[in-house]
Structures are given as C-alpha cells and as structure tokens.
C-alpha cells in the first residue's frame, strides 16, 4: 500500500465558540496547499470558510457539522476534523473525539478558558486524547497568552508549559520566540507564507531565558538523560527536547502551549510542526474492541493492514448520491469490492464506492489504510456501527450520548410538507443520536427533542431549506422527570375472572429513593412465594409503570423496587398477570412515597462588559437562577449560574436588549433538581386539565 502509518496524524480542532477554530483550519488548508485562496468565516467576499459548507453555517458564521479533510505537511499525512464549538452540537464533538488520536485545543488570548473549553477538555479526558493548546487571537486588544496558560493550569488542571512567547502583543504582534530552537520567528510575505528565523530581540532575551528554564525544568521529570544534562548546565540537543515533549504529551501528562493569530497568519506553520512532532500516530494509541463471540472479551486492535478489518462508522451524511458514512479504520484495510460485516445489524454488505472527503468535495480511492479516515457510499447503517471482516465478530464500544432536555411540537403546513417532514426527521434522527422525534399518542402531535433551542432551530431551518418543508412550531417543552422522596410499602393483588382461566398475582414489598441510578430491582423473595419464572415479569411491570408518572405524565427516575412477598395461583398465574400486579403495586407505593417533580437545571455562563454586570445578575435572579461564581477580567465579566431550563426560553433576546447586544451566553445540561412547590402545583393542575379535555373528546 505504501503508506507509512507512523507519518499519519488523525487530529481534531476543538474549542469554545468563536475562538477561531474554523479560521485556523482555513489557514492550515492554505499552508498545506489544499486551497489557494483564504476566505473568512464571516467574509465580505461571500464565499465563507471552506470547512463550513452548509449554507446555514455560512450565514450564521458557526460550525454545525464536523467536516473532515486530509492534508499533507512535510511528508506527513494529517486527517483534520473541524468540530462545532456550540454546546447544542456536543454529539458532533463526541463523535469526532471518538475517532481522533490527538487534538488541538484552541483558546482565545482574550477570553482564555471559557465554559465550553471546560466541556471540551472533559471530553478529551474521557477519550484520553492527547492535546496541544493553541492560544489564538494574540493580535486582539487585551490579549494575554500568559494569563491563558495560568488558566489552563488552574481551571483545567493541565500541566501546560509554554513552547513560545510572543514578540509584541495586540496590534504590535510581530512574530514569536521559539524557546526550543532559541530563535525569533517572523512570518513574511502577504499571507505569512515565508517563515524567517532570526536572533531573539534584545528586550526579550531575559524573558526567553526564564521561560526556557521553566520548559526544561518541566521536561526533566520525563527523561533522565535530559534531567542530567539540565542539572549539569550542559547544552541539550533540540531532538532530545522534541522527543521528550512527544513522550510526555502522548502520556497525557504534558500540554505544549503554542500561540499566534490565525487571522493575521502568524504561528500556524509552527503549530503544524507541533502536530507532526508531538501528537501520536495511529500505532501509538491503544484502541479496543469487544469480541461478541467470546462473552464480549476485550481485544486490543493493531494498526496492521494484514489483520482482519475493524472500522467504526462515526458519522452519517445524506449527500446527493445517497447516504455517506464516515469510517475510521482501526485494523486491516478496506478495499473496493471487499465484503464487510455490520456487527450490530448482523448484515453483510459489499464496499461499492470508497471516497476521501475534503469538506463537501470528494475524491474516489481504491483502498483505505489502517488509521485512515474514509467515507463509504450507499450502505445502510446507523451512527456508531462497527464494520469488520466476516471472519470476526467485533464491536467497538459505543459513544456516550447525552439525553435530550428540550422538546417542541411541530405541525406541517400542508400535505406536501407532511411527506417531506417525515423524510427529513428520518434522516436527522439517523445522523444525530441526540435529536429524537416521535408522535405523542395522546395529542397525535409530532414531537422533536434535542439539546437546546439552537439545536432544534437549526434542524427546523434545515427542513425548510433542504426539504422545502414548512412547519409550525408549538411552545418548547421541558423534559421533566418524576421521583419519590421517601420509602413506601406496597401489597397489591391483581385478580380477574373471565370465563375459563383468569389472572392472578400478588406482589408485595417496598420502594425507596435511589441516588445515583434511574432504577434498580431487588429480589428478596424467600420460599418461592412468587415462582422464579415470574420474577422477571415483576421487573418488567415496574419498568413499564416508570415510563409514565401519575403527577404530570413524565418518566419516573431514582427508584429502587424491592419485592419480598407475593402469591401465585397454580392455574391463573401467568407472565402478564404478574406484570399487571407489579404495575398496580408500583402505583400503590408511588402514591404513598411523596412523589415530586424534577426539572433539568442548566449550567449557564454569561459573558459581557462589566458595566452590565448588574443587569446580568438581575436577569438570572428573575429566572430562579443561583449564581455560582462571578469573575471580572479587565472590562469583561463572566457570570456562572445554575438556572432551570424552563426559565431560559427566549433568554437570548432579553440578554441582548439588557446589554445592547454586547453579552453572549452558553448553557449545557448539569443535573435534575426539585421543582418548587408553587410551580409543581401549577404543572399538576395543567396536566389534569389536559387529561380531562382529552377524556371528553
């Protein structure tokens, strides 16, 4: 095949919204000769960034879908995946991280570590992805990369060490000092294409020596040879420094901090060198699959093209030629005409067309190597499916998919829109596991669920544009939950006599609140009071009863059900009799266990000018919010709070008018919390009225 796997890098760019990720990926494409002209994200030329290929992305200037492309740099192949920064599209980030070997964490030199940077960092830690930090926007007023480095340490707990210091800041940003080669680096030419090395300016020599000391001191912990040379005051070879940074970065014990300004074309080439030098290749990352034929035993995968193929479909897209599935190959190779096996669907399929993607352009290829990211056409699968050679039956562990927290009723305007709507929903739910759609049996309305207002807004907008489907939307609904607050006993007998054999089952025991899980079933039956074959029926009945609470009709969580007594009948007892007995028992206990309503509490982070701090505080307090922290940095302040989701609808409009459009906020799901009694009463009342109306129909 001839591809050297050690010279391949699968990397992603992830960061807080508006840190300049897409601008950075645009520059990377330019310097690696993938594109020949630079376009801005919100550019005047109307072209928009290459990686934001959806019309919607270009208009809003945000990234919604992660795009994949392949570039080459100094003999290395880099598969680059640009991910969204907005919290509503978390699943896109999760998906990308699942298949990445390394990441660039982009931070704004002014904003520093923001709320979404913390979320992204948690995701990187969850999937053990080594990272390089890139402090972008060093040309902006108020830029301070040194402060950002401290925040990386304090807020994210990373061992972040500078590899560069800036020459000038804000509008005086001229270049960088490379602490490893001890040279000043300038970027000449119109678009910074010529990299020039020179002596360090005299006024920066003392700073450069201080930060180089810091770097060598941090690295001496990871390499004995380097430590000896450092302590002996001897010259340390550059190669030794590079190899030690690489070793420590891959072990996730060190984060190199690089900087520059993507917009001003400074620092990108050094960052690309850093990617090839410090981030792992596919052979250095441990990946595991589960052997389904051997009790799900863990198997380590090797990046070897001669072994049976194992690949993961991590993203689906509907293109003009049918469904496109992005695949990361972990082991073996995929060739045109190969037969592969989908271990979830238990189906075999043939590889027809194999392509390599560049945002929305594609080139046909004949085979994909281990570690490669390619796309397959026309295969029927879901996001997160594993494809392997027919000789094995492996499955990769699935991704973490958060539960949706907001729902919206949608109604098509006419018959044509109704047909298109079902097509669109079918495709979107397949593409995005955090987006769900179902028909409510009571009201017969179509309900869509997602991670936030923006998330649902984007999908409704995509329906309009891509499917010419006009829909009317109802009021957003919050995904409430119900739970119990105390222990309660139950003893319920279900009996029904209808000619012939009847139904009989008695279930007794108790229920109690459960902290860390949604549901637990405990069997404490002695002496066969309930025969063994009917125990699972009781569990089934309880689970069924929990799907819908009696207060406001939402699912019940946090309950442990214990059965310790019961009774059966030799003729009339059956699986269904015990299921119904368990449902009756649950409802009996539930009414006594002081049930209450829970609501999603969101972690809200508001950033804006300090002069509006009072207004921001007031707007959160009015929404039953609890302010957890407030920090001021120069003229900007950041307020962190916990606010119920039901109070956050339309907040963006209110915030804009309170702060003259200067503040912005992000929110993500934090936990479920108890609803205050006054609101709980209103909700129960509304639910009862709604039920009455439906019964009258």
Under the CATH scheme, which class of the largest domain? Alpha Beta
How would you classify the helix and strand content by structural class? Answer: alpha+beta
Shape designation:
globular
Distance between the termini: 69 Å
Share of helix among residues? 25-40%
Q: Please give the largest β-sheet.
A: 8 strands, antiparallel
What amount of the residues lies in strands?
25-35%
Q: Give the low-confidence spans.
A: 40-66
- Helix segment tally: 16
Provide structural commentary.
- There is one protein chain.
- This protein is of the alpha+beta class.
- It folds into five domains: 5-284, Rossmann fold, CATH 3.40.50.300; 287-396, Translation factors (Elongation Factor Tu (Ef-tu), domain 3); 406-475, 2-Layer Sandwich (Alpha-Beta Plaits), CATH 3.30.70; 486-593, Ribosomal Protein S5, domain 2, CATH 3.30.230; 597-678, Alpha-Beta Plaits (2-Layer Sandwich).
- 28% of the residues lie in helices and 33% in strands.
- The strands form eight sheets. The protein has an eight-stranded antiparallel β-sheet with strand order 18-17-23-14-15-22-19-20. A seven-stranded mixed β-sheet has the order 2-3-1-4-5-11-6, with helices on both faces.
- Helix 10 (415-431) packs across helix 11 (453-467) and helix 12 (535-546) crosses helix 13.
- The protein is globular, with a radius of gyration of 29 Å.
Structure summarized in a few sentences:
28% of the residues lie in helices and 33% in strands.
List keywords for this structure.
697 residues, alpha+beta, Rossmann fold, Elongation Factor Tu (Ef-tu), domain 3, Alpha-Beta Plaits, 8-stranded antiparallel beta sheet, 7-stranded mixed beta sheet, 33% strand, globular
